[in-house]
Amino acid sequence: MTQGLDIALIQTRTPATAAAGLAHVEPLIRQAAAEGARFILTPEGSNFLEQRRGLREEALSDEGEDAAVLGLQALAAELGVWLLIGSAIVRSGVPGDARAANRSLLVDPTGAITARYDKLHVFDVDLAGGETYRESASVRPGDAAKLADTPWGRLGLTICYDVRFPHLHRALAKAGAGMIAVPAAFTRPTGEAHWETLLRARAIETGAFVLAPAQGGRHEDGRQTWGRSLVVDPWGVVIAKADHDEPGVLHARLDLGAVDRVRASIPALSHDRTFDPPQ
After folding, report:
1. Which of 33, 114, 143, 197 is spaced 20 to 30 Å from 97 by Cα?
2. Structure letter (DSSP) for residue 163
3. Residue from 50, 63, 135, 160 carrying the catalytic annotation
4. pTM for this one?
5. How does strand 177-181 pair with strand 153-157?
6. Is 44 a catalytic residue?
7. Residues 189/195, Cβ–Cβ less than 8 Å
């Protein structure tokens, strides 16, 4: 495993169809590769973002037929890079369940999908400003955590709302993840209040790099997302950050040796104790 890794996070404002989503993200990925990134990560909902029911159903397809997924596989092969499609909204493939999967896909430099992860925790909430989200109505949650092998070590896969569940990230770290991806489409109210704090906490707790590409701005369906993509090192230091909502490329160089150094200095992952539940 090499000790240095040049990565790029792609910040997007994804349109409402997969063809438009591909056209939106492709130039940014090309830019990231031309600027030296070997591992490129896109946000949650990188193929399309659309919550209006009829339009969403029109945009939805199977993973193997989605224009953005197929286009991004071909692009990874053309550019010779590792690419994490932070998530694609695709049909779940589960008989009798019409809901979609919110699925993260790791693509290798041949264009092959080497790992899949379906978002475990779905976002059902009523916000103080009157916004209501019921992701469970349209997205079937996954049922398994996922580690992926890369040339630079093991990558833990999570998506957006998963960041609020520390035990998931701890389990990934204890299973060998030195990097954890958190692609997201955070709402503006929750993003402004919690986004950076949660990501830094997950990095500190796990002694892992946290890589968080985000959606940003007002989307075609009216939702507003927070942006501010960022990279946090295993000590909890933000080493790269977008300070805006606009589409763009955020580069970072990871010193992968920092994972072992931090975990040796604070070996909390090996200090778990069993205890009686609270009464």
Report:
1. 114
2. G
3. 160
4. 0.96
5. parallel
6. yes
7. no
